[in-house]
Amino acid sequence: MLDPPLTRRAALGLGAGTAVLAACAPRWAPPGPGGGTGPSLADDSFVASDGTRLPLTRWQRTDDPAAIVIGLHGFNDYSGSFREAGPYLANRGLIVWAPDQRGFGRAPHRGLWAGTERMADDLRDLAALARAHWPERRLLMVAQSMGGAVAMVARADPRRPLDVDGLVLSAPAVWGRAAMPWLYRMVLDVTTALAPGLKVSGKGLNIWPSDNIDMLRTLGRDPMMIRETRSDTISGLVDLMDAAQAAAPRVPPPFLVLTGANDHIIPAAPTLKALKAMVGDGTDPLRRPALYLDGWHMLLRDLGAVVPLEDIVAWIRDPMAPLPSGADARARALLAGDLEITPRKTPIDPAY
Prior knowledge:
Elements: H1 8-12, H2 18-23, E1 40-41, E2 45-47, E3 53-59, E4 67-72, H3 85-91, E5 94-99, H4 116-133, E6 138-144, H5 146-156, E7 167-170, H6 182-194, E8 199-200, H7 213-221, E9 229-230, H8 231-247, E10 255-260, H9 268-279, E11 287-292, H10 306-317, H11 327-335
Parallel strand pairs: 4-5, 4-6, 6-7, 7-10, 10-11
Antiparallel strand pairs: 1-2, 2-3, 3-5, 8-9
């Protein structure tokens, strides 16, 4: 994924030179100005507990919502990832708040990693504001990919568990170092140490995040999307995914975990490991997995997104009831070894 790749011989020769490494230290997003009185809410943003102002997009069709949903986007994305799901859920009687996480979209320090704990604190801050604004309503998370990892870490923290009534995790990012090939780990660590500002992209790789080709083309023109990523930011993401995988057994129910059989972004092995840690023997209906055979990584933006969206709406209404699509029964069959899946290599039909 990095071009040009560092060889093992080159990596072994990089041990000396502390001063050089110090000069090439990773660059993290600085903290906010502080000095505030706590989190606060504005029409199009919220101010986190460290004084940083973060953009906030809202979708609302009613003053009597069934529940409040915080939508959390994935890596290099922003609140625009809920451009379809936000109105859809709002039309079903929910209110959706979707922030741009710091370092992404319109948020400050674009392209710099803020750290797992700071991102979790931002989520706690927004949840507290939502609780205060809608004290009589249930508060839930719908978190995609990286956002799912942030939600898992924040919710499983025994010191300060995220105060929500349930999680919906769509293709959560749980591909930690232990599941990566050793060469990936070595290249990442060496590059982060010696060239933390080196920017890489996925251009030229046959990796498909969705079967919605028109949507992907639109994303390709969206100036808010980050297309080239610093190596130290990638390292920060992997730290987060490590933390999310470790948190998986401690995430309290109720939760719904959505995964697509054709996910090219998060490999199947770490996803199944996290699912098994979260779901256990599958007998607890509040610990709900869901598998979509036609689903890709961007489940809520796929061509078949209406199926998982309808499942989300149904689950929010009644976390104990079976999902309308049967995706939960399918996921339990997969976890039990009674179902085998063959991911598609490309979503494009030869006749397209």
